[in-house]
């Protein structure tokens, strides 16, 4: 049985940003709904409600929808028109192809003073003699009935012979209700017979289990007969086809029970087909390497493992907990430079390695006590090995303040920056490049002492030996 759920209503309210409290229109058709509920509490502002092509047997839980203007309940299992007095704004009601046989229930719509259109086509009551005249006289507010406009003259004629029409309608209604009660009893007997037949089939199946046990003599004889005859179709398939043909070709009355039976039969067939498709559907292949060449980690066998790095021997060791009592012939090992793949009874274990290895030098050993598989894979020769770095002690420096700041920088693991000590900055005075000659001295001699620092522009020549030609760029300010 399908019920109206909040998720179902929200999915149908995409045009209202999935908000249901302010919803004015909702379409719940073709959902196999078997009961109307919750809508009068969740969607008080509904104006249009589509519920056609479902399995609703009764009109209920709609009395609080004061703003409802259009209600579509075509192609359902409704037998009585009821519980619509609270829908004060109802203007159009569609009950096409239902099972309304109690025509007198139309009078319950007298309280819906705004009702203008009513559709009852395809209901048993439309076959009653005087049907249209009775509806037109009972509902003076109607303007259209079954898509045909009600003229003023037709309304006057219907009101004139109303008493005679009511008597005829009541007689036909009693006959219909009597026939309907017989149909319900027949449907109940049929359902009870089907249940007993199913139980008998189960009991017979249980009693014949011994005949289907592999290895028994009778079963062997049956298999030989089937192999010799080679029938094109199995008896079960023939039975199913015959049952399907009988179900659809057996005449039956058009009742809510027969409609429910057909629906359930189709639902069972659909589920059986889905199960067959799931069985026949091949399992999706496991992606081991993606299209862009990326290797995936896979553990289909769900085995425990450990991956370690032996720094002394420069190897990578993979310990895989293979089943202890499993034969080694069921294990296949494939080592590649960047990954290792082990197939255990058709199930794949694949692991991406942290470094490049030598496949040709790798070894695979299995423990005779635990059954574990150990792969020893040496690193490649060109692989850069990450070693632990030991911090160097700080260099001695003449400036005590500078060394302490350097130590603090190292200690805090901050990036090192090159700093210039302004006290060591030496600038050359361009005016004193050539030493002046005193009167008491001989020829020009290079001054062996460094020129005094000045604020002029130039470059330092400290540390350069011999004669140095210094190219000076003069900046004009």
From TrEMBL:
The keyword Repeat applies. The keyword Cytoplasm applies. SUPFAM superfamilies: L domain-like. GO terms for biological process: cilium movement involved in cell motility; convergent extension involved in gastrulation; dorsal/ventral pattern formation; epithelial cilium movement involved in extracellular fluid movement; heart jogging; heart looping; motile cilium assembly; outer dynein arm assembly. Residues 128-146 form the U2A'/phosphoprotein 32 family A C-terminal domain. Pfam families: CS_DNAAF11_C, LRR_9. Residues 176-205, 217-229 have a biased composition (Basic and acidic residues). Residues 360-371, 397-406 have a biased composition (Polar residues). InterPro entries: CS_DNAAF11_C (IPR056496), Leu-rich_rpt (IPR001611), LRR_dom_sf (IPR032675), U2A'_phosphoprotein32A_C (IPR003603). Residues 176-260, 360-412, 436-462 are annotated as: Disordered. PROSITE patterns: LRR (PS51450). This is Leucine-rich repeat-containing protein 6. It comes from Seriola dumerili (Greater amberjack).
């Amino acid at each position: 049985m399908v019920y109206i759920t909040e998720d179902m209503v929200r999915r149908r309210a995409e045009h209202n940003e999935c908000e249901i409290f302010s919803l004015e229109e909702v379409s719940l058709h073709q959902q196999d709904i078997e009961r109307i509920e919750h809508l009068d509490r969740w969607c008080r502002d509904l104006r249009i409600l589509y519920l056609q092509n479902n399995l609703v047997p009764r009109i209920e839980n709609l009395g609080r929808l004061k703003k409802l203007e259009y209600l579509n309940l075509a192609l359902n299992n409704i037998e009585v028109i009821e519980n619509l007095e609270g829908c004060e704004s109802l203007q159009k009601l569609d009950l096409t192809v239902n099972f309304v046989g109690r025509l007198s229930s139309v009078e319950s719509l007298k309280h819906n003073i705004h009702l203008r259109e009513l559709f009852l086509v395809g209901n048993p009551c439309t076959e009653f003699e005087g049907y249209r005249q009775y509806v037109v006289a009972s509902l003076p507010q109607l303007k259209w009935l079954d898509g045909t406009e009600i003229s003023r003259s037709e309304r006057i004629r219907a009101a004139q012979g109303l008493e005679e029409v009511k008597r005829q309608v009541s007689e036909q209604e009693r006959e219909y209700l009597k026939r309907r009660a017989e149909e319900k009893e027949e449907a109940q007997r049929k359902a009870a017979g089907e249940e007993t037949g199913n139980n008998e089939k189960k009991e017979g199946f249980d009693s014949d289990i011994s005949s289907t046990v592999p290895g028994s003599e009778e079963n062997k004889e049956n298999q030989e007969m089937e192999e010799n005859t080679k029938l094109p179709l199995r008896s079960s398939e023939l039975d199913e086809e015959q049952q399907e043909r009988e179900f659809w070709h057996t005449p039956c009355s058009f009742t809510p029970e027969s409609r429910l039976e057909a629906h359930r039969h189709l639902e069972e067939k659909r589920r059986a087909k889905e199960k067959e498709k799931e069985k026949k559907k091949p399992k999706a292949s496991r992606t081991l390497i993606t299209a862009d060449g990326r290797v995936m980690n896979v553990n289909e066998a769900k085995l425990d493992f450990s991956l370690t790095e032996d720094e002394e021997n420069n190897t990578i060791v993979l310990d895989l907990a293979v089943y202890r009592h499993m034969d080694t012939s069921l294990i296949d090992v494939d080592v590649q430079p960047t990954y290792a793949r082990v197939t255990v009874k058709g199930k794949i274990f694949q692991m991406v390695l942290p470094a490049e290895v030598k496949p040709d030098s790798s070894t695979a050993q299995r423990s005779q006590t635990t059954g574990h598989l150990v792969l020893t894979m040496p690193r490649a020769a060109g692989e850069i090995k990450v070693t632990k770095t030991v911090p160097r002690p700080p260099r001695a420096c003449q400036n005590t303040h500078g060394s302490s700041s350097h130590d603090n920088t190292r200690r805090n693991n901050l990036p090192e920056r090159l700093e210039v000590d302004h006290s060591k900055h030496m600038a050359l005075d361009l005016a004193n490049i050539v030493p002046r000659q005193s009167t008491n001295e001989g020829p020009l001699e290079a001054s062996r002492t460094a020129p005094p620092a000045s604020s002029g522009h130039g470059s330092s020549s400290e540390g350069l030996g011999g004669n140095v030609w210094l190219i000076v760029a003069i900046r004009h300010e």
